[in-house]
Write a structure and sequence with these properties.
The protein is built from 13 helices and 7 strands. It is α/β, with parallel strands linked by helices and 290 residues long. The chain has a 7-stranded mixed beta sheet with strand order 3-2-1-4-5-7-6, sandwiched between helices. The structure holds S-adenosylmethionine (SAM). S-adenosylmethionine (SAM) binds next to helix 2 and strand 2.
Length: 290
């Protein structure tokens, strides 16, 4: 699947590309392999651990000047002037890496006891603990209902408010214990996954950043430049679908800017899912600049 994705992204060997979600560097490595000596790749990650790991992994490519790692939110790609109208492709493999899920610092997984942080990086004003201990009940409820589609959102929000009156929630296990106090054990694990994902999406403002990125970066693409988005959440996929649709239509003032190359999103086959269970929920959409 990685090859199919990177073949979509890299349509010319000497182009300038952006991987907005470096992570462990799997896609970055596959993109760089497809480039000629003149090709360039900028890879972003908000997580300094991903940057540190990939600085070592790709030291040779970095020295040759073909790869530049940038420790920042991918939205910053829209302010790199060198890319304006010249970018040949963008890849976003959204969400978290398995390293982040297992990290004892990030607090992203309900399976690892860690401070309730959930930020991809060290920047950004608000952590999950800030939301859980300071936000109003209805806002906490909305996060779980909208971003997590969690049936227990209302009861969970009420229980969180009661719990924080006694003592602030500080760790992932504090939040897990609140959930365990009201959600039946046989469905607890699925609820926890939805609840933790919902707070992570809120902390990192993921949906709004995704929409800003798509709308901001499409004009940066050169003619035939590709944009390939791998999303794992129905709300993310809806944003990608709607933005691609908006940019593929003529309006009164602006002619259509892209052709959509995937009328239906691409999905992983059973073999891929066996190898990588996370691929079960992936939806991949591709658009090409006119
Ligand atoms: C699913 S992983 C990417 C895995 C990568 N494609 C690979 O092959 O190893 C997503 C990565 O993107 C980063 N990330 C997510 N949203 C980001 C954003 N808005 N700006 C910068 N990095 C982001 C996360 O920190 C994480 O390391």
């Amino acid at each position: 699947m990685r090859d199919i994705i990177c073949d979509y992204v890299v349509w010319k060997k000497d182009g300038i590309y952006v991987d907005g979600t470096l992570g462990g560097g799997g896609h970055t490595g596959a993109i760089v392999e497809r480039l000629s000596e003149e090709g360039r790749l900028y890879s972003f990650d908000a997580d300094k651990e991903a940057i540190r790991h990939c600085s070592e992994r790709f030291a040779e490519e970095i020295n040759k000047g073909r790869l530049t790692l940038i420790h920042d939110n991918f939205i910053r790609a829209c302010s790199i002037e060198e890319l304006r109208g010249k970018a040949s492709g963008l890849l976003l493999d959204l969400g978290v890496s398995s390293k982040q899920l297992d990290s004892a610092q990030r607090g992203i997984s309900h399976r690892v006891n860690a401070p309730l942080d959930m930020r991809f990086g060290d920047e950004g004003e608000c952590t999950a603990a800030d939301i859980l201990n300071e936000w109003k009940e209805e806002d906490i409820e909305r996060i779980m209902r909208v971003f997590g589609e969690e049936p227990f959102s209302r009861a969970m929000a009420r229980r969180i408010i009661q719990r924080r009156r006694a003592a602030p929630l500080r760790t992932t296990f504090d939040l897990r214990d609140v959930a365990a106090s009201l959600i039946p054990p046989h469905i607890l694990s699925k609820s926890l996954a939805r609840i933790f994902q919902a707070f992570r999406i809120a902390v990192n403002d993921e949906l709004s950043i995704l929409e800003q990125m798509l709308r901001g970066f499409i004009p940066f693409l050169e003619s035939h430049g590709r944009i390939v988005i791998m999303s794992y959440h129905s709300l993310e996929d809806r944003i990608v679908k709607n933005v691609f649709r908006d940019f593929s239509r003529n309006t009164d003032d602006i002619p259509a800017m892209v052709n959509i190359l995937t009328s239906k999103p691409l999905e992983a086959d059973e073999e891929e899912i066996m190898r990588n269970p996370r691929a079960r929920s992936v939806k991949i959409r591709v658009a090409e600049k006119k």
